[in-house]
């Protein structure tokens, strides 16, 4: 299996949020200007972590592109409502074509293949944006391509479009231009954040095993059960340093989770950020607030 790393988390925000960041953001994080994307009306701001990953505040400042425009991989976010919507993984040791080729091979082999969920990855598409200082950066995005498998959930569990697995993001220009993670001013945060501890993926209870197996093949990671919980953990690398992060595939069992599944669909539900903190005990975590902030948690760095 190949070695994949966490790349970034996408938090879709409206224009008011983007232009007037709420206190739960500014009180906890150092926000770095991103830029404007080429070919579509979108822009971003970043919260960059010392492990080389980042949280992206993504905003449409005008009408999103049509789903028919296959040259714009971000078009899938156009119909989504604000909140955590997607995340990217990368492989800093291989090209986009090599990484995705290996993953697609795993998804097409063996008795379980893609676990009957109808997932493979398409061809890498080049994206770019201009930073605030005028620097042009570019990357290749490879998004999943979906089909109707014998275990694919019904359409009502893909609210405003299907985004239940991550996409790949590989750098074309030097990664440090896109993610200035060596700049301590940018990676030092008031809350003590050091990196991404976990991404939680909420799935239907009856498809928990299938989604866990699917994620294992995409990430190239072994499955670890969480004792006493209906969840499985998959280990994932980070772009910088020796720390690790995880992806947790979690079955919707509580009323809160089932309601969330109906409202936002299968996929990324919560983000856990590792912090250096004496105010949190081992295994304890604290949400940053209400609304969108209730899905972003701080947990003591392990």
Can you walk through the features of this model?
- This is Glyoxalase-like domain-containing protein.
- InterPro entries: Glyas_Bleomycin-R_OHBP_Dase, Glyoxalase-like_dom.
- Pfam families: Glyoxalase_3.
- The mean pLDDT is 93.
- Helices cover 17% and strands 35% of the residues.
- Helix 3 runs antiparallel to helix 6.
- It contains seven helices and 17 strands.
- The radius of gyration is 18 Å and the shape is globular.
- The strands form three sheets. It has an eight-stranded mixed barrel. The chain has a seven-stranded mixed β-sheet with strand order 12-13-14-11-15-17-16.
- The chain has 302 residues and is α+β, with helices and mostly antiparallel strands.
Descriptive key words:
single chain; 302 residues; alpha+beta; 7 helices; 17 strands; Glyoxalase-like_dom
